[in-house]
Amino acid sequence: MSRRLKKQEWEAFLEELKEALGKMGVAYRETSRIRSAGALCTVRGKKVLIVNRFLEPEDKADLVRREVRGRDLEELFLKPDVRDFLGG
């Protein structure tokens, strides 16, 4: 994924990443109540990626990539650009 995307393009790509998270059984939530960028955690027995809403779309996408690193993506149908971005 090129780093030269415009903000609007990053926002669209982030939506694709959110769909991929859903296929992994991970919910995506944005909040302004955290001071960090965010993290993958378990809330009431379910995996949730909590993301600071004030991050730029590119930084949110990088957080998604960082938090799902190492997950097995072989069984999931993902768009090629999403799979490449996530390192699968």
Provide a quick synopsis of the model.
It contains 3 helices and 3 strands. With 88 residues, the protein is of the alpha+beta class.
Topology at a glance:
Blueprint lengths: L6 H17 L2 E6 L6 E6 L2 E7 L4 H12 L11 H7 L2
Parallel strand pairs: 1-3
Antiparallel strand pairs: 2-3
Helix pairs in contact: 1-2
Please, could you describe this protein's structure?
- The protein is α+β, with helices and mostly antiparallel strands.
- The chain has one domain (7-86).
- Helices cover 41% and strands 22% of the residues.
- It contains 3 helices and 3 strands.
- It has helices at 7-23, 57-68, 80-86; strands at residues 26-31, 38-43, 46-52.
- A 3-stranded mixed β-sheet has the order 1-3-2.
- Strand 2 (38-43) and strand 3 form a beta hairpin.
- The chain is globular.
- The chain starts with 6 loop residues before the first helix and ends with a helix.
Estimated radius of gyration: 13 Å
Biggest beta-sheet profile: 3 strands, mixed
Straight-line N-to-C gap: 13 Å
Q: Which regions are unreliable across 5 or more consecutive residues at pLDDT < 50?
A: none
Number of domains: 1
Q: What portion of residues is helical?
A: 40-55%
Mean pLDDT: 92
Tell the overall outline.
globular
Number of helices: 3
Give short descriptive properties of this protein.
single chain, alpha+beta, 3-stranded mixed β-sheet, 3 strands, 41% helix
